[in-house]
Amino acid sequence: MNLSEKLKSIGVKQVLKYVDKDFEHNAVKVCDWLIDHDKDGGVKNEATMVRNVLQDPDSNWYQLVKSLYTEIDDEQRKRLLENFVINACLIGTPTGFENSVRYDCNVPWAILMDPTSGCNLHCTGCWAAEYGNKLNLTLEELDSIIAQAEDLGCYFFIYSGGEPLVRKKDIITLCERHPEAAFLSFTNGTLIDEVFADEMLRVKNFVPAISIEGFEEETDFRRGKGTYASVVRAMNLLKERKLLFGASCCYTSKNVEVIGSEAYFDSLIDLGAKFMWLFTYMPVGVDAVPELMASSEQREYMYHFVRAMRDKKPLFTMDFWNDGEYADGCIAGGRRYLHINANGDVEPCAFIHYSDSNIREKSLLEALQSPLFMAYHRGQPFNENMLRPCPLLDNQGKLAEMVDASGAHSTDLQNPEDVHELCAKCKAAADCWQVTSQELWEEDHGPERWEAKKVKIAERNQKLQNKVRRA
Description:
The protein has helices at about 5-20, 25-35, 45-55, 60-70, 75-105, 140-150, 170-175, 195-205, 215-225, 225-240, 255-260, 260-270, 295-310, 365-370, 370-380, 400-405, 420-445, 445-470; strands at about 110-115, 155-160, 180-185, 205-210, 245-250, 275-280, 315-320, 335-340, 345, 355, 410. It is of the alpha/beta class. The radius of gyration is 22 Å and the shape is globular.
């Protein structure tokens, strides 16, 4: 951390302490100060938006932010805010962009990694089962990945699997070794007990996103009888300790009506969840069930429904396919994140099981400069319609083209899947969504807005290049 970053860090910490003293009044004062002193217009619009929210007690966003100060442990909130706001955003984001320009490759804001392929459940349509339960990244390998990423400006790490909490002890150890990083885990929640919840409260920089497919019937259908009850027990344990947690929901052709219902959102809020990560089902792996893929009409429904709930419910929601417009398209391939499986294979995405690099043979930076990742870097965005971000599900043939050109191989050790066969499973869905998404895109955005956005992106990249050259 250089002097400028240290001064920035100290300043933001003081602001956070000031807000902590009296959230309802001091947060508004901070916004007023930012608005009055923003000579370049860099944060004025955002500060005004936040100020308006904070002055409307009936707003769902006000209720959500307030709940972070009344329902979450004070010390955990402070730790997570510092790690996210200061390290991951104020320091990590510009550092990552600078390194992206310096090394001419993508540099991720977040890294998703699998400590183990082992899992205590066997969910219908889950690709993780294909890896078996014998693959593991060692504690020192995980530690090395995190250290390399921090050097590049990445301070946000996410665990998946398998079931990450099979490695509870190592996960806590990594939280201790990297106190300036923020850790999140996708987990089925069934292994969260009182002892582990107490450890979470102690280290304070670990947050679970608990997988839940709807209510009891829908969750137990995919994850096994009794799973929903175990999830509710886990959420109650976390809520009792005032620990931050969220939900991870996969919507399929069988559960869209449930996931996309106000009753379901209300149930998660009542259980104590503060955020919700939404995914659509991907037919990855030889045991995949293509019939579970959401139809074009169902995906459009979720597009409208989630946006409506953002103006109504105190639950922060992210839909990783339908929110492509906010991320300027695909975020995989290291552009915002990448995936490292339990065998060490560095993959562009958790849903793209192809690789030309292994973390045991290459450094993280070398993997980012590999042919497959460079194909992502040069090809993103894959479509000017940001509602078609994915090279597999939304842009037919694009993934196969990159895999073929880079010489990448399937990382499924037990049942390797030919990339052309995988793409073929997605063709009908991609063709239908192409028509639907184009209508949505032109209705809400239009070509003029996209052209203006491209100019802004180009200007930002030029500024970063000039900054790196001066350095």
